[in-house]
Amino acid sequence: MNKKIKKLPETELELMLCLWDAGTSVQRSYFNTKFADKGWSDSTILTMLSRLAEKGFITTAKNGNKNVYSPLISKDEYMQVENSSFLGRLHKGSVKHFVASLADADSLTDSDIDELESLLKQLRER
């Protein structure tokens, strides 16, 4: 990955998650509909979209008289950066420490443990 991907503030991340979930380019009205319950104004959404474009996360193209927004960074690319940052900051880069902290907090169910065992088995078979 050659791109320098920065951590997004929560509100901008919400817009990106919405765009990634759309799976296609969208107009601003798409975001207005998705975030109507938050009470975000058109100008708030436009400001966040402008910031995302400045940061290199999205591109804007004209379709008639409307702007269409498309991601330039994939969800997987962003998640890799976020996961590494999270592990590095809170768990000294150790997946073991992360899982141990979940176990210590009684956050892991038997189902979670079964899923982890299955994932580890799949990873070993690669």
Q: Helices, strands, pairings?
A:
Elements: H1 10-22, E1 26-27, H2 28-34, H3 42-54, E2 58-63, E3 66-71, H4 75-91, H5 95-104, H6 110-124
Antiparallel strand pairs: 1-3, 2-3
Helix pairs in contact: 1-3
Features:
2 domains, Penicillinase repressor fold, 126 residues, 3 strands, mainly alpha, Arc Repressor Mutant, subunit A, 60% helix, three-stranded antiparallel beta sheet
Outline type: elongated
Which percent range fits the helix content? Answer: 55-70%
Query: How many strands?
Result: 3
Radius of gyration (Å): 19 Å
Number of domains: 2
Query: Strand order, biggest sheet?
Result: 1-3-2
Number of helices: 6
CATH class of the largest domain: Mainly Alpha
The assigned CATH architecture of the largest domain is Orthogonal Bundle
N→C terminal distance: 22 Å
Give the SSE order as H and E letters. HEHHEEHHH
**Which residues form runs of ≥5 with pLDDT under 50?**
none
The CATH superfamily of the largest domain bears the name Winged helix-like DNA-binding domain superfamily/Winged helix DNA-binding domain
Report on the structure:
60% of the residues lie in helices and 11% in strands. It has six helices and three strands, in the order αβααββααα. The chain has a three-stranded antiparallel sheet. α1 packs across α3 (42-54). It is mainly alpha-helical and 126 residues long. The protein has two domains: 10-71, Winged helix-like DNA-binding domain superfamily/Winged helix DNA-binding domain (Arc Repressor Mutant, subunit A, Orthogonal Bundle); 75-124, Penicillinase repressor fold (Orthogonal Bundle). The mean pLDDT is 89.
